């Protein structure tokens, strides 16, 4: 007997689709029979984590027969000290992705609305749907940048959560602190606003301090160790929120949601800010070089504030396929309704050289 499991699942399942991640290197190697591939699809740190984080994991490895600290006390204390906030205000998760999902699940359900930007990070839409809430996607005025005024207009009495990615993935756009402050000032103080700062470390210098915005009680700032800190494979992210919000999210959190290795790695990585800052500087220099090269090819679109660049071409699918044939994995943006775009993560100088050489060859061949 074949069971129609969809008929048994919660109603919102029908409209859900799984998050589409970047293609893993092993898959491309197998598909194409290649010996080397470069993944520029998931905005990972190509240099890896701080060696101190690797050592901390090695030391912790012998203890993984025991559950980790379920409250992630050492990590929360380290984050609280780092940000000069009370420990009760820190939420940690299996990637900031889990923190975002927990926040949305805690505050939005059937009949509630979650407001985000149409080309904002796709996880907000997926999390809202999974929670049974109604996603409200607000169009960008210029095709790339969150339209904060239009987002304010979209807020009504059914709105429970507003999500902003700053810088945004995949568009790379950034709003300054003054614009964010005016946005918050125009909203009720008890409305949950998430500012997702997964790429904060790449804009720290130009954006300045955003933690001060937390004077607004409904604001939650989320960050991750996956990007600048190079710990994507550990799955560890966090948020700073009002202590009351953090306490409620804890009720939805699974026990031991952050692994022992992830906790150890994150504490050590946070402590090695110098190493992280040097890798960020390398990445920013490479990003600017890539944007100039794309400009010279007539394929550049906007300016990215993240560790990735945007490529725009009428036949981007053909370019993506040709790049994969040459062992380079880009990220097509069709799931964002941006079929003409590819997102390319900034790799090491050598990886970027390989990408730019392949791209030049492909574009020359298309002309
Ligand atoms: C990568 C990313 C995240 C999620 O990262 P985690 O690995 O789950 O911490 C969150 N928001 C944005 C905008 C991202 O690009």
Automatic annotation (TrEMBL):
EC number: 2.6.1.9
Top-level EC class: transferase
GO biological process: L-histidine biosynthetic process
Stored SUPFAM superfamilies: PLP-dependent transferases
Modified positions (N6-(pyridoxal phosphate)lysine) in chain numbering: 227
InterPro entries attached to this UniProt entry: Aminotrans_II_pyridoxalP_BS, Aminotransferase_I/II_large, HisP_aminotrans, HistidinolP_aminotransfase, PyrdxlP-dep_Trfase, PyrdxlP-dep_Trfase_major, PyrdxlP-dep_Trfase_small
Listed cofactors: pyridoxal 5'-phosphate
This protein's UniProt keywords: Amino-acid biosynthesis, Aminotransferase, Histidine biosynthesis, Pyridoxal phosphate, Transferase
Molecular function, one GO term: pyridoxal phosphate binding
Catalytic activities: L-histidinol phosphate + 2-oxoglutarate = 3-(imidazol-4-yl)-2-oxopropyl phosphate + L-glutamate
Aminotransferase class I/classII large domain span: 38-359
Similarity annotation: Belongs to the class-II pyridoxal-phosphate-dependent aminotransferase family. Histidinol-phosphate aminotransferase subfamily.
UniProt cross-references to HAMAP family, sorted A to Z: HisC_aminotrans_2
Record protein name field: Histidinol-phosphate aminotransferase
Lineage start: Bacteria, Pseudomonadati, Pseudomonadota, Candidatius Mariprofundia, Mariprofundales
